[in-house]
Amino acid sequence: MSIPNDHPSHKLHESSYLRACRRQEVDRVPVWFQRQAGRSLPEYRNVRGAGSILEAIENPSLAAEITLQPIRRYGVDAAILFSDIVVPVNAIGFQVDVIPGIGPTVDQPFRDKTDLKRLRVLEPEVDTSYVLETVKILVDELDVPLIGFAGAPFTIASYLIEGQPSRTHARTKSLMQSESSIWHDLMESLSDIAIASMRSQVFAGASAVQLFDSWAGALSADDYKNYVFPHSQRVFDELKDLGVPRAHFGVGTGELLTLMSDAGADVVGADWRVPLDEVRRRVGPGTAVQGNLDPAVCLAEWPVVERQAREVLRASNGKPGHIFNLGHGVLPETDPAILEQLVELVHTEGLHPELSAR
Q1: CATH number of the domain at 8-357, out of 3.10.50.40, 3.40.1550.10, 3.20.20.210, 3.30.70.260?
Q2: 242 pLDDT above the threshold of 70
Q3: Is it the case that residue 358 has pLDDT exceeding 80?
Q4: How buried is residue 209: exposed, middle or buried, by Cβ count under 10 Å (0-12/13-18/19+)?
Q5: Could you tell me which residues come within 8 angstroms of residue 9 by beta carbon, excluding any fewer than 6 positions away?
Q6: Mean pLDDT of 291-317
Q7: How many CB atoms lie within 10 A of CB 195?
Q8: Active-site residues: which are they?
Q9: CA-CA distance, 273 to 263, in Å (whole number)?
């Protein structure tokens, strides 16, 4: 079922972000930042209040305000919904919390086949109605596209199995290799949840979606192809009829970029480890690219940030199909003034890499 004719994405079809996603000519290189809303902004700290991030997400007016803050400050070309990739699995009762300084933690991690029963079908209008209300508030306020998102099956599986963020993903890989039938059943369930969540966000008004496979870089290309690729591919395939851009992002995924593109994404985001011209080569001419300034660079003085941003722009060389972004999320200690200058630089010089040669 496609989106209706009065959907916001139709009204915003000339936006530089949506055009870049489709590899069309733009009047300026669009830019937005992963984690552009949040702890780096004083206005966020002023409104955030006490309680967990999940409680803030469950407050539509607050979540909408937090989403809007970086749009007002930076003038970026897209908003990304203030939410979290664990919201859907927590909403269906898997008891996931987001602990400051640690990240997502699971009270009772996934261990065996019996835990599959804990993953019921997501009913967005019931389970995550507050997310949809936030989206509806935002589309009335925004004059740029809103990006909805979900956690990719592998990354959500890794949180559920490990119980918290992991450096090695040892339990996850062990289950994947030794209990492949259970693994694929788990991935099927998590794919269903991601699909339902993103479709509901689009029907509520989101103009694009991004699948975050944050930890896929922990896998070899062969393991990704055998155990993850079919499920990511199904997610993208079941969103195709919506007609909105679909982006795919992971960290440390340089060796997986071709596969991530082949899974069906319109846009592949890359971290800072691979130059953008090489990212383009790996994803192929039919896929737009997003990235890829190292977030840590933004902690330096402006001349350093300026120089490194120009390197990204030179690597892109003004070609269609580039959305400027960081190679991961904005770090909490980032000076917002640096990002303000960065947006201005990208808008001014992005299509003219010769300006960046100075």
Answers
A1: 3.20.20.210
A2: yes
A3: no
A4: buried
A5: 3, 18, 145, 207, 208, 243, 244
A6: 97
A7: 20
A8: 35, 39, 48, 84, 159
A9: 21
Burial of 241 (0-12, 13-18, 19+ CB in 10 A): exposed
Domains of the chain: which residue ranges? Answer: 8-357
Tallying the residues shown for the chain, one arrives at 358
Amino acid occupying residue 323: I
pLDDT at 64 over 60: yes
pLDDT, position 355: 62
Beta strands in 178-286 (DSSP E): 208-212, 246-249, 267-269
> Please, what is the end-to-end C-alpha distance for the chain in angstroms?
50
- Hey, what are 195's tokens? 């699909």
Indicate the pairing of strand 322-326 with strand 288-293. Answer: parallel
Measure the CA–CA gap between 67 and 287, rounded to whole angstroms: 27
Facing residues of 208 across strands? 147
